[in-house]
Design goal:
The complex is a heterodimer. By secondary structure, chain A is mainly alpha-helical. Chain A is built from six helices and no strands. Chain B has one domain. Chain B is elongated, with a radius of gyration of 18 Å. The chains are: A mainly alpha, B mainly alpha. Chains A and B meet through α2, α4, α5 and α6 of A and α1, α3 and α4 of B.
Chain lengths: 203, 146
């Protein structure tokens, strides 16, 4: 995931965020949708159902890549220029949705993609796509470690910080810096994914 | 890192903690690399020596993280466990779906056992790093501000 805040140290003082909305770290209304998606993915894998596997992989992957690049390249820089209260309010409403959305898209894309590659024979060493897929595993591996080990913890910690009666702007800024530092790597990996997947689809 | 139980902690941002998040993230990276190695052989049976070594190293780093974390005083344990258990539920489901795919594809024997061990490490690594990151900035029980 990408730069969604760019909050600078000391920027978010207590005065600016006292009128912020109540923050739900995990939006409970979204959980049934996530559950439905997970059940659909499991059904697609269990039935080795070509259309459903393709749907999950293409739709999930397209949304994952598009959201990552859009947030990193478009939303992030705009957000960085907003007023502090606007930035805090946007972040408070936006980040909880990302907590549910991105892991769901990643699970949908990867689980269906592996099964799809197996079904279509792309995993076979004889397939011209095999080496491309191994490279894609590496790209996904880099993104997974960054997303799960660096960004997701920061995302959730920011939400908990913003729930406090007096959020510490320095803590938020420190955590948000992770998004800035990793957004370049994530962007390059997503572009690499686009290149690899369009190669795989056309060989 | 460790102060007496009654000590007032330094402000969250300036407190020094053991490298729990770093070790756990490296542990996660090792099992991801092991998973990539195994997946690159699918649908053939992969050689498991290197992935097994990576899984063992990942498990050791996870244990080291847990050990270092257990020594942190004061710490917002209540907040830590609140986040850890919900994240564990989420990532156990995620690991379960991945494990299901491997079982469905007739992965068996030592390779399946190794995949399951890696998934267990993954399902513990991610909640641990999330919960630690949240709790390190929370005020421990008995201290104001959380």
């Amino acid at each position: 995931m990408t730069d969604v805040g760019n909050v600078q140290a000391g920027d978010v003082g207590t005065a600016q965020v006292t009128a912020r909305p109540t923050i739900a770290v995990v939006p409970l209304k979204g959980l049934p949708i996530v559950a439905a998606v997970v059940v659909f993915v499991i059904t697609a894998i269990a039935g080795n159902w070509l259309w459903a596997l393709t749907f999950c992989h293409v739709v999930g992957g397209a949304l994952w890549t598009a959201i990552d690049l859009f947030v990193g390249l478009i939303v992030g820089p705009i957000l960085a220029r907003l007023s502090l209260p606007a930035r805090a309010e946007f972040t408070a409403r936006f980040m909880p949705k990302m907590v549910l959305l991105m892991p769901t898209l990643v699970l949908m894309t990867l689980a269906a993609g592996f099964q799809l590659a197996l079904k279509l024979g792309n995993l076979s060493p004889a397939s011209p796509n095999h080496s491309w897929l191994v490279v894609s595993y590496c790209v996904v591996g880099v993104m997974a470690v960054i997303a799960l080990g660096v960004l997701e913890p920061a995302n959730i910690a920011v939400l908990f910080e913003m729930r406090k009666p007096e959020p510490d702007g320095t803590v938020i800024a420190t955590l948000m810096r992770r998004f800035i530092l990793t957004s370049g790597i994530t962007g390059v990996m997503q572009v690499a994914t686009l290149i690899i997947m369009t190669r795989v689809a056309t060989q | 890192m460790s102060a007496g139980p009654a000590a007032v902690p330094a402000p969250a941002i300036s407190r020094q903690f053991p490298p729990v998040a770093e070790l756990t993230t490296v542990s996660l990276a090792l099992v991801v690399v092991g998973g990539i190695l195994m997946a690159s052989y699918a649908p053939r049976h992969p050689p498991i020596a290197v992935p097994a070594a990576l899984a063992v190293a990942g498990a050791l780093l996870l244990l080291a993280s847990g050990y270092l974390l257990a020594g942190v005083r004061p710490f917002a344990w209540e907040r830590f466990f609140l986040v850890f258990r919900w994240a564990l539920l989420a990532y156990a489901i995620s690991a379960g779906v991945i494990g299901f795919a491997f079982i469905k594809d007739h992965t068996g024997g030592a390779a399946l056992a190794l995949v399951l061990v890696m998934l267990v490490i993954y399902a513990l690594d991610v909640p641990l790093v999330i919960a630690f990151t949240v709790a390190r900035y929370a005020s421990p029980a008995g201290h104001a501000g959380s």
